[in-house]
Amino acid sequence: NYQTTMSAPPPPYDRKPSNTTPSALGARYLSQTRLRSNSHGPLQEISAELTEAEVNSIAPPAPIYKIVLTGGPCGGKTTSMARLSPYLRERGFEVITCPEAFSLLVNNGMAFDYLGAVEGMDIVVQDTVMDMQIGMEDGFERVLRARGKPAVLLCDRGLMDGSAYMKEEDWNKLMQKREINCVSELREGRYNAVFHLVTAAEGAEAYYTLENNAVRTETPELARSLDSMTLNAWVGHPSLKIFDNSCDFETKMQRVVEETARLVGLPTHLQRVTTKFLLKKEPDLSAFPKEVAYQIFEVEKVYLYEENEVVSQENVLKEYSFIRKRTSLRKSGKESGSVYGWTSVQTMKDGQRVEKKRIITKREYLSLFNNRDKTRHIVRQKRISFLWNIQSFNIHVFKEPSDVCILHAQVRSSPDSNDTVDMPPFLDVDRLITDSEEDEMYGAYQISLIK
User: Which of 106, 224, 230, 256 has the least CB density, counted as fewest CB within 10 Å?
Assistant: First the structure.
């Protein structure tokens, strides 16, 4: 159960570490103070020459979340942004929306026939779109960081969306031109979450319309194709959430709001994010259907502290933190790049579980690694991310210290949801993993304990 009872954004920057034993709260404070002391040299030495906004922009004192809203035409992106902005502002967050760069080009005079007018023009256009997108996102984020308050940047599409509108060889040329060796830099290394809103042309055909977006001209058939390609572009992001049309549009929008609330730590009716299954063995990738796109990663998870003391927050029973290194692997098995993250996990006194995540730098990761909990193993996994029937799946193949294989399946999680997992037939499933005490042994937190 992942519901939270907090009524305001958590202020980790206000909490101080314990004066006695290390704690999860100390880990959270440590990660923030290390960032503020290591970014661009010791911050204390130059802070006297900087304004408060400049100091904040270097080392923000409050969390900032970057969320991509993507999907096929007429999926609900515009409405979602209109719903999320006031919802978050009313609850104490600063919010900026980042527009779609391609639409800005078209709305300001670039005709669609530019794309085929000159050989190689599509690469030039997508390169320009990426420049514009990066410039806007980084600029808006800089402003939010300087503000010094909890904030959310809502992005109308993200950098990986361009790959859905290009041939694979052209996309690879663009990556080489920009000297990007690993697309993880454009995916999980840049955004906290990706919300894919499935086009109305898939499952809600009667409501498919392009009247609210003059830039789009797609037929329902093309819309479904683009939706699928866009979704495949984001396979591998650990927080890829899919919002389909199995419900009415209002419920779809509510699910988007609830998932956002869960991400930033606000009250929500969200009760479950994934369903887990024990697999009999590691899957044979050659048995995957050709149309199933997948990404492979190596993951190193390091627990920083075990919470044995009384937590100062009234409703929190225990809290711990871990850092994670996620390395992308090519089909050949060669590493192509790594991204780093930090996660805080709270168990509330009513049994609810709350997770908060932050993208960190390699430098922060190495610094925090030195303060790992020595009573726990470093957990190493191979992960396989893929899509099946508009569902997101992640397979965790434990390498150290265990050898179990667990399937994580995204399911819709509103209280009235009766959805079941459409299980991929090419996996050898043993059984469902429940919330019972016996099945706690299959969680990485328990597996990491040195016995």
Answer: 106
Q: What is the pLDDT of residues 113-147, one digit of tens each?
A: 888 888 889 899 999 999 999 999 999 999 999 99
Are 424 and 293 a contacting pair, CB within 8 Å? Answer: no
Spatial neighbors of 24 by CB under 8 A, at least 6 apart, are: 304, 305, 307, 311, 318, 319, 320, 321, 344, 345
Residue 445's identity, in one-letter code, is Y
Per the listing, tokens 């005490």 go with 437
Instruction: Say what the pTM is.
Output: 0.80
For tokens 């993951």, the residue is 299
What CA–CA distance (Å, rounded) separates 70 from 230?
Answer: 8
The overall longest dimension of the chain from CA atoms, in Å, is: 68
Q: What is the pLDDT at residue 4?
A: 32
CA distance 376 to 430: 28
Structure tokens belonging to residue 207:
């409501």
Radius of gyration of the chain from its Cα atoms, rounded to whole angstroms: 22
**Angle, vertex CA 414, rays to CA 240 and CA 355, nearest 5:** 55
- What does residue 20 show for φ and ψ, rounded to 5 degrees? -110, -95
